[in-house]
Amino acid sequence: MSRTVAVIGGGAIGLSVAWRAAQAGWSVTVHDPALASGASWVAGGMLAPLSEGWPGEDAVLQVGAASLARWPDFGAELETLSGDTLFTSHGSLTVALDAADAADLRTVAEWIAGQGYELELLSRAQIRAAQPSLAPNIRLALLAATESAVDNRALIGALRSACVASGVEFVAEAVTDPAAVAADQVVVSAGTASARLWPGLPVRPVKGEILRLHRRPGVAPAPTMTIRGSVHGRPVYLVPRGDGLVVGATQHESGEDTQVTVAGVRDLIADAQTLMPSIGEYELHECAAGLRPMSPDNLPIIGRVSDRVVLATGHGRNGVLLTPLTADAVVAELDGAPLAEAKSASPERFTFNDE
User: Fold this and answer.
1) Nearest-CA neighbor of 20 among 68, 63, 81?
2) Residues in contact with 291: Cβ distance below 8 Å, sequence separation at least 6, in sequence order
3) Measuring CA to CA, how many Å separate 268 from each of 134, 250, 288?
């Protein structure tokens, strides 16, 4: 007898859940009026839970590291199925421009080591040797060799191809009530829209702006790994793509606003150029903004909230990183055997209304 599951939301999370559920024997339908038009489309694609860690955020680190460990096999399987290249860089470098930032890097390195992971501090000379396009006044960097980055748009395409090959069906309509969907089980993975589908769900939109830059002929090549830093207290990252870089990301609590602002673009360009001076010679190809689905504690919300409904939302700025773990966790929930590695992301830490 066929088991049916409806997945509401067709971003990276929803598509990965649909693909893995179909592989596990479920008959799957994805409901989304505009696939991959949300946060997944404007993501940076960083897989960087270690270098972004901070003392006290143990659960965030553990969930991120568990998903990072799944990415090599997950990505390789998708690349084989689709024929596309997903990974755009291997390794990430977090840089410090001043003494305060350098102290923070040492704090992170020490804490990460205490959690059982390894990061390496690089001197000014080592930074210049490894990434000559970076500014010469960078004084210290933290190397995470096991981290990487993926092309978010290639990921979406590969996931959709994998879903089609696995027999997943698509319905290009919005869902307003999970109870009205005809399926044995329902997965709510609609990003910021998830809060409208389940009463009391503490997921809010946080706007993030990104730039996509293309390298022009004769201009210095982009760094070979993801570069992260802080300029005037503002975080900025540079993520390699085959044709250039993705630069992000601003963070604004601005409701449903997805307009790109002049100030946001100005700050991103200025901050990126502080880290990589030659970036001013790149072509400004695209400016975009998306809404990250944020939870109160920066952990996703993954798990069952009723006999019929499973949530997979609240991933914030880590949706791409957490894609493989979330897919495994949701399929485990559907099969009645919750995944231990996702326990800290359980909805039980919040109070919800009944269906």
Assistant:
1) 81
2) 38, 39, 191, 192, 205, 206, 207, 208, 256, 258
3) 16, 7, 12
Sheet bearing 309-313, strands edge to edge:
169-171, 26-31, 3-8, 185-188, 309-313, 301-304
Closest CA to 171 of 39, 24, 6, 17: 6
Run of H or E including 301? strand 301-304
Work out the angle at residue 236's Cα, subtended by the Cα atoms of residues 232 and 238, and round it to the nearest 5 degrees: 145
Residue type, 346: S
Vertex 41: Cα angle to 276 and 177 (nearest 5): 145
| pLDDT 10s digits, 213-224 | 999 999 999 999
Rounded-to-10 torsion of CA 66, 11, 43, 195:
-90
Torsion sign over Cα 202, 290, 249, 121: positive
DSSP H stretches of helix in the chain: 12-23, 58-82, 99-114, 124-130, 152-165, 262-275, 323-334
Structure tokens of 134? Answer: 């970076």
8 Å CB contact between 4 and 27? yes
Task: Give the tens place of pLDDT for each residue, 283-311.
Answer: 999 999 999 999 999 999 999 999 999 99
Phi and psi at 80, nearest 5°, equal -65, -45
What residue type is assigned to position 249 of the chain?
A: A
C-alpha span between 112 and 173 (Å, rounded): 44
CB burial class (10 A; 0-12, 13-18, 19+) of residue 179? exposed
The predicted pLDDT at position 352 comes to 66
Beta bridge partners of 310: 187, 304
CA pair distance 236, 65, nearest whole angstrom: 22
